[in-house]
């Protein structure tokens, strides 16, 4: 399935909110995504999209199968992420993949893409928060060199603690990210319009 990695668009938000509500217990509201995509001057939201497909829909009165296309011009968001770049900090605010697409390496693809983007925007370090019990995500972040630097007590809405993790984007990290990005490009076939083109609104 050919994929495209690109800057998130307003027309993606419906799919993104759908995934957000399925994945997170305290999802972002719709207006937050609109702000990130259309207003924020530091946000580099990313979407991983699949091409159009035809899916069946049952016409209930006659119990006949009709066919329709869904999504953003037929495209479907299968994963997304949020990156804020403020001064020399790259803050990864969110990573999510559609539950039906887990196990394909899309979470790592999105993480590496945002780190690549942070480097392009001259960030000196990257940070993120992760639930204390989310050991799978922590293992991925540690793989990329992140380290726990603080515990945020009761950080999440349900009272769970969060870890603050940090990665210094020094020469060694840059080399590691570039190497991993190349390996991902060989493993997952996609077109990269996120790290190779300027932000359509911020033009950088």
Count up the domains. Answer: 1
Overall pLDDT: 91
Describe the strand arrangement of the main beta sheet, using strand numbers. 8-9-7-6-5-2-1-10
Order of helices and strands: EHHEEEEEHEHEEHE
Contiguous helical run count = 5
CATH superfamily: Gcn5-related N-acetyltransferase (GNAT)
Question: Radius of gyration in whole Å, from Cα?
Answer: 18 Å
CATH architecture: 3-Layer(aba) Sandwich
For the secondary structure, the number of strands is 10
% residues in beta strands: 25-35%
CATH class: Alpha Beta
Show unreliable segments.
Answer: 58-71
- Secondary-structure-derived class: alpha+beta
Can you walk through the features of this model?
With 204 residues, this protein is α+β, with helices and mostly antiparallel strands. The protein has one domain (3-193): 3-Layer(aba) Sandwich (Aminopeptidase). 30% of the residues lie in helices and 32% in strands. The protein contains 5 helices and 10 strands. The strands form 2 sheets. Strands 8-9-7-6-5-2-1-10 form an 8-stranded mixed β-sheet, sandwiched between helices. Strand 5 (76-86) and strand 6 form a beta hairpin. The radius of gyration is 18 Å and the shape is globular. The model is unreliable at 58-71 (pLDDT under 50).
